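REVIEWER CHECKLIST
Item 1: Sequence provided? yes
Item 2: Single chain? yes
Item 3: Sequence as submitted:
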Amino acid sequence: MRRCPCAGDSKLAPSEENTIRVFRENTPSVVNINTFTNAQSFTMDVDRIPQGQGSGIVWDDSGHIVTNFHVPLCASNPICT
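Item 4: Structure as written out by the authors:
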Protein backbone atom coordinates (compact mmCIF):
# COMPACT_ATOMS: atom_id res chain seq x y z
CA MET A 1 0.00 0.00 0.00
CA ARG A 2 1.09 3.53 -0.77
CA ARG A 3 0.93 6.39 1.72
CA CYS A 4 -1.67 9.05 1.08
CA PRO A 5 0.20 12.38 0.93
CA CYS A 6 -2.81 14.32 2.19
CA ALA A 7 -3.88 12.22 5.14
CA GLY A 8 -0.86 11.97 7.42
CA ASP A 9 -0.19 8.36 8.37
CA SER A 10 -3.16 6.72 6.64
CA LYS A 11 -2.52 4.30 3.82
CA LEU A 12 -4.57 3.65 0.73
CA ALA A 13 -6.47 0.41 0.38
CA PRO A 14 -6.13 -1.55 -2.88
CA SER A 15 -9.63 -0.47 -3.93
CA GLU A 16 -8.65 3.19 -3.42
CA GLU A 17 -5.47 2.65 -5.45
CA ASN A 18 -7.61 1.19 -8.23
CA THR A 19 -10.03 4.14 -8.13
CA ILE A 20 -7.13 6.58 -8.44
CA ARG A 21 -5.67 4.61 -11.36
CA VAL A 22 -9.02 4.52 -13.21
CA PHE A 23 -9.49 8.26 -12.63
CA ARG A 24 -6.01 9.13 -13.95
CA GLU A 25 -6.36 6.90 -17.01
CA ASN A 26 -9.79 8.22 -18.02
CA THR A 27 -9.75 11.89 -17.06
CA PRO A 28 -8.34 13.01 -20.46
CA SER A 29 -11.43 11.67 -22.25
CA VAL A 30 -13.99 13.60 -20.13
CA VAL A 31 -15.42 16.80 -21.61
CA ASN A 32 -17.57 19.63 -20.28
CA ILE A 33 -20.41 20.63 -22.61
CA ASN A 34 -22.05 24.06 -22.49
CA THR A 35 -25.08 24.55 -24.72
CA PHE A 36 -26.50 27.83 -25.97
CA THR A 37 -29.52 28.97 -27.89
CA ASN A 38 -29.84 32.06 -30.03
CA ALA A 39 -32.36 34.77 -29.23
CA GLN A 40 -33.04 38.00 -31.05
CA SER A 41 -33.13 41.05 -28.80
CA PHE A 42 -35.24 44.15 -29.27
CA THR A 43 -32.23 45.75 -31.02
CA MET A 44 -32.43 42.96 -33.64
CA ASP A 45 -29.05 41.63 -32.49
CA VAL A 46 -28.77 37.88 -32.02
CA ASP A 47 -27.68 37.01 -28.50
CA ARG A 48 -26.28 33.68 -27.38
CA ILE A 49 -28.18 32.59 -24.26
CA PRO A 50 -26.82 29.83 -22.01
CA GLN A 51 -29.16 26.85 -22.22
CA GLY A 52 -27.54 24.12 -20.17
CA GLN A 53 -24.44 22.26 -19.12
CA GLY A 54 -23.42 18.65 -18.97
CA SER A 55 -20.57 16.26 -19.44
CA GLY A 56 -19.58 13.58 -21.89
CA ILE A 57 -16.69 11.45 -23.08
CA VAL A 58 -14.61 11.40 -26.24
CA TRP A 59 -15.74 8.15 -27.85
CA ASP A 60 -13.17 7.59 -30.58
CA ASP A 61 -10.13 8.95 -32.40
CA SER A 62 -12.39 10.97 -34.71
CA GLY A 63 -13.50 13.08 -31.75
CA HIS A 64 -17.11 11.91 -31.51
CA ILE A 65 -18.58 12.77 -28.12
CA VAL A 66 -21.11 10.68 -26.21
CA THR A 67 -23.39 12.40 -23.70
CA ASN A 68 -26.88 12.06 -22.28
CA PHE A 69 -29.75 12.93 -24.62
CA HIS A 70 -30.96 15.87 -22.52
CA VAL A 71 -27.65 17.78 -22.73
CA PRO A 72 -27.90 18.98 -26.35
CA LEU A 73 -31.72 18.82 -26.51
CA CYS A 74 -33.32 22.01 -27.86
CA ALA A 75 -30.03 23.90 -27.89
CA SER A 76 -27.72 25.07 -30.60
CA ASN A 77 -24.05 25.97 -30.54
CA PRO A 78 -22.67 23.36 -28.12
CA ILE A 79 -19.16 24.11 -26.90
CA CYS A 80 -17.04 21.27 -25.54
CA THR A 81 -14.03 21.87 -23.36
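Item 5: Key structural point noted by reviewer: The helical segments are 14-26.
Item 6: Recommendation: ____
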